[in-house]
Amino acid sequence: TWKWVVGPMFLYLCERLVRFWRSQQKVVITKVVIHPFKTIELQMMKKGFKMEVGQYIFVKCPAVSKLEWHPFTLTSAPEEDYFSIHVRIVGDWTEGLFNACGCDKQEFQEAWKLPKIAVDGPFGTASEDVFSYETVMLVGAGIGVTPFASVLKSVWYKYCHDATNLKLKKIYFYWLCRDTHAFEWFADLLQSLEAQMQERNNADFLSYNIYLTGWDESQATHFVVHHEEEKDVITGLKQKTLYGRPNWENEFKTIAGKHPGSRIGVFLCGPEGLADTLNKQSISNSEADPRGVHFIFNKENF
């Protein structure tokens, strides 16, 4: 038995040593941004840190807890000179981080007063393969929208730098959430991308649909009253917020009709139930003919 156990244990110890060494490397918090609804953005720098789109890291703040590590998706793009995470304050540890960063104080905080942070990672996800397709469907549900902040930023940087060599030609983005308040920072990102694409006369590059799955009668009445306005009253985007859930069968058939003979990447960050639905639709809407349209499903569950 020991011959079978020694090998895996040796590899496990090596992996733990590498993770310990990486966690001891110095991390500098360069900026803390407070977003609405108790969400903070930490922008950090670390020597030798290299990331790809949609990856995640583990974060430890000794000032809050000396042992706890928490995973956070990177919301920055590889092209930026820093890496960032967005943290929503929903528990004891995040509340402690919020206070340790001085976000509970009104006055300006000096950088040297910010707490020490340990970072382990980054670690890869399915989202890294986005640039392998000409057409992609990105589906984010709730907090699952965070990986696509990194993806959309990186797409924009690549598009601006050399659009002719960018294989990705069309993005269909779907955002499903109970309410957009906790993710207003993401709506701001979409507004910026929307404006920049229009300036370059390529507004069709990114098609997005926002579905509000949790809404009440007062919201519905407000929606009816302001439906004719140029911009959506909830997100401030030109694309109006939709209510309920998408009809995935219709969405897949429409996209398949627009891109015959293509390999279309379907990327999800969301719950297991939605993953099963999208996987079945990807299979049923893919053609048996190798020259036909094929949906390739990739998922990241939480």
TrEMBL record:
Domain of life: Eukaryota
Keyword Oxidoreductase on entry: yes
Cofactors, names only: FAD
Compartment annotation: Cell membrane
Domain FAD-binding FR-type: 19-129
Known role: Catalytic subunit of the phagocyte NADPH oxidase complex that mediates the transfer of electrons from cytosolic NADPH to O2 to produce the superoxide anion (O2(-)). In the activated complex, electrons are first transferred from NADPH to flavin adenine dinucleotide (FAD) and subsequently transferred via two heme molecules to molecular oxygen, producing superoxide through an outer-sphere reaction.
Protein name per the record: NADPH oxidase 2
Organism for this UniProt entry: Chionis minor
